[in-house]
Write a structure and sequence with these properties.
Layout: E1 4-6, H1 11-14, E2 26-29, E3 39-46, E4 56-57, E5 60-61, E6 67-72, E7 79-84, E8 88-89, E9 92-93, E10 96-97, E11 102-109, H2 123-133, H3 137-151, E12 157-163, E13 168-175, E14 183-189, E15 195-198, E16 219-222, E17 226-229, H4 232-238, H5 251-255, H6 260-277, H7 280-284, H8 287-290, H9 312-318, E18 349-351, E19 357-359, E20 369-377, H10 383-386, E21 388-393, E22 402-405, H11 430-441, H12 445-476, H13 479-511, H14 522-532
Parallel strand pairs: 1-6
Antiparallel strand pairs: 2-3, 2-15, 3-20, 4-9, 5-8, 6-7, 9-10, 11-12, 12-13, 13-14, 14-17, 16-17, 18-19, 20-21, 21-22
Helix pairs in contact: 2-3, 11-13, 12-13
Length: 543
């Protein structure tokens, strides 16, 4: 009798609901660009209307004939298919496996006619199957290629950051349309001394090319630099997307050409990240591009070498960005409201009363995040302690990042799926505790954010201070002892966050009761004065 197991990362299991995300941000750091030699990648999983959770699948050996169940599509009516299980699967916590391999994603749609509804794998199923089967980033790319070739891909254009403890790769992939298995894709290795980012737009243009495909793997390899599907150019010709010489072929122009939305809502997030770590003068020269003028610049660099090494704490701060201090600053004009809030109600696109088409900025930090993580891979430590997932549920700007080690064997209860129900508030839910606090801060941002930042810094400073001792002790333990130790640490860190956020929530409601807050922001006051004229101007009474 064949044995069947469920894939732990189908959307309805990874998330405590069935609504998938399609607007996410990834930041990626090479090992020589980080302050300590770690490779870093991040994920803000954005999408309205779902409660996220942290997933876990245990490592294990599997018998011949064992199958794994995979959802085809999203929602309760998704079809279930079965594919052969691998002989051995690695343990996976969230989007990092026990070998410190991490895969994060962001969707860019591209040529929507290339979605194959009959494909068995969406991007999350592809990611989790790969994490269970790959011990390195390069192996992960090969596994992803093999899986879509064999079982088909049913999503639209997707970018993946595929990282391990030594290197980071960026991979862009799109299907071939109805009735055709496989996908066309390109993967580039991020130079070790560079950083890059993805934010819902295709970014790989031209790339180094090989003379022929690797017969064993079935795709092309430029040693140490690039991998790509052997038909990535010929398929574009077949579909009428490209007719120039091979050497000038641009993956982005063929499969995910930029439009206004891709530039302003997506590339702008990449620009802001680069601006944090590179010359502001040079990066500000791209402002016309972000405003739709392609006459001087028609793209951002694929990656940059930062002016100074980047720490994981820097990256955590980058995940909370709202364009503060830039020409796109969301706190600096009347649309920020009385309390200078960088948050805006949906939709992104809207119209003025005279029919003028308008938009709102789309920053890295946004209220619709269901979960956020910073994956940190450290080659000089045993894998179980070297890989850390700094994790929490809800908006990165509004939460404290909790260290969860990749070598654990049990999830902290507040992050478990059963404790994070979108339809029922619970004090045992990290999602609801973080949302409770965030939704108090959003409307009165400028007067409440200081209290939240204090709690956030207090926790993250504590976790950072603990780390050297945890690293040292973990290396002295046996493998089994190490697992128990790191599991207990991850659980205690999560419990500490939950208690601190409960204290913070109670402080906010008492301290700011009945809107006893300081004055409105100057920009808002000036806008009221300009619109209302003398109505609210105080008068002197002369008798």
């Amino acid at each position: 009798m064949r044995r069947i197991i469920a894939l732990a990362a189908s959307a309805a299991i990874l998330f405590a609901g069935s609504i998938h995300s399609d607007a996410c941000t990834n930041l990626i750091v090479g090992k020589n660009a980080s302050t300590d030699g770690s490779v870093i990648c991040t994920y803000n999983c954005d999408g309205f209307g779902f409660a996220a959770a942290l997933s876990y699948s245990a490592p294990g050996r599997h018998e011949a004939g064992e199958m794994v169940a995979v959802r085809q599509g999203w929602g309760p009516d998704a079809k279930i298919n079965y594919i052969p299980q691998a002989p051995y699967t690695y343990g996976v916590v969230g989007l990092m496996n026990e070998k410190q391999v991490s895969i994060v994603e962001t969707t860019w749609d591209g040529r929507k006619e290339l979605r194959n509804p009959d494909g068995w794998l969406d991007y999350f199923a592809l990611m989790q199957l790969t994490l269970q089967r790959a011990a390195s980033a390069r192996e992960a790319i090969a596994v992803m290629h093999q899986l879509v070739q064999e079982f088909g891909y049913n999503a639209t254009g997707e970018s993946f950051a595929v990282c391990d403890k030594e290197e980071a790769w960026i991979m862009e992939l799109i299907g071939k349309g109805p009735g055709r298995k496989g996908a066309v894709w390109v993967a580039r290795r991020l130079p070790d001394d560079c950083i890059t980012a993805y934010a819902n737009s295709s970014r790989i243009q031209t790339f180094p090319q090989a003379k022929k495909a690797d017969k064993k793997l079935g795709f092309c390899i430029v040693p140490g630099d690039t991998m790509y599907s052997s038909d990535v150019i010929s398929f574009a010709r077949e579909m009428g997307y490209y007719n120039g010489p091979d050497k000038d072929f641009s993956f982005r122009e063929a499969y995910g050409p930029l439009d206004w939305g891709a530039i302003r809502y997506c590339e702008a997030r990449v620009w802001s990240f680069f601006r944090h770590h590179y010359s502001t003068e040079i990066m500000d020269s791209y402002l016309p591009f972000l405003d739709g003028d392609l006459s001087v610049n028609d793209h951002l660099p694929l990656w940059i070498k930062p002016d100074a090494p980047v720490s994981y704490r820097d990256i955590q701060a980058d995940m909370r960005d709202h364009y503060e201090g830039t020409a796109l600053d969301m706190t600096a004009d009347v649309s920020a409201g009385p309390w200078a809030s960088p948050y805006r109600n949906r939709p992104v696109n809207f119209e003025a009363s005279d029919g003028t088409k308008m938009f709102r900025e789309r920053p890295i930090g946004c209220q619709q995040s269901g979960m956020t993580m910073v994956c940190r891979m450290r080659s000089w430590l045993p894998d179980a302690v070297g890989g850390i997932l700094y994790f929490n549920l809800d908006d990165a700007s509004m939460v404290a990042y909790v260290p969860v080690y990749c070598g654990i064997n049990r999830l902290p209860d507040p992050f478990r799926r059963e404790n994070n129900n979108i339809r029922e508030f619970s004090f045992d839910s990290a999602f609801w505790m973080c949302n409770w606090v965030a939704n108090m801060v959003y409307p009165r941002y400028s007067v409440m954010i200081g209290d939240l930042r204090e709690a956030q810094k207090e926790l993250e400073d504590y976790y950072e201070a603990e780390q050297p001792a945890v690293d040292a002790k973990a290396q002295e333990l046996t493998a089994g002892e190490r697992t128990d130790f790191l599991t207990a640490k991850s659980i205690s860190y999560t419990d500490k966050m939950m208690k601190r956020w409960d204290t913070l929530a109670r402080l906010l409601i008492v301290k700011h009761n009945d809107q006893m807050s300081p004055a409105y922001s100057p920009a808002f006051i000036d806008a009221v004065k300009d619109q209302t004229g003398p109505r609210y101007v105080r008068k002197e009474i002369h008798r």
